[in-house]
Amino acid sequence: MTWSRCGCAAKTRCWDWTEKPPTGTARRCRGAPVGARLLLAVGATEGLEFHRQARALEQAWGSAGVAVEVLDLAGENHFSLAASLGNPASRLTRALVDLVGAPRG
What per-residue confidence (pLDDT) applies to 20? Predict the structure, then answer.
């Protein structure tokens, strides 16, 4: 079995989806699905590393053809972002509803 470059956002060698990877290999990738969308949320009060990682993910997936939206939410952190999901009026909840195409109640 040989490694193949699938063109995924990971920019690493991935096993072809049709091949069975060897025991202990976690990565199996089919590349970015056509029409894929990704929502990344980061709180504005987070440290620089959270923001760096969000931008790196945005660049990697965007270059793979995925439509990426980054929400940089003022006054929020990763704890308050999770809590905001219980509020149907929160910006993050509204963005998720839009992402999945669910009707708003």
Answer: 58
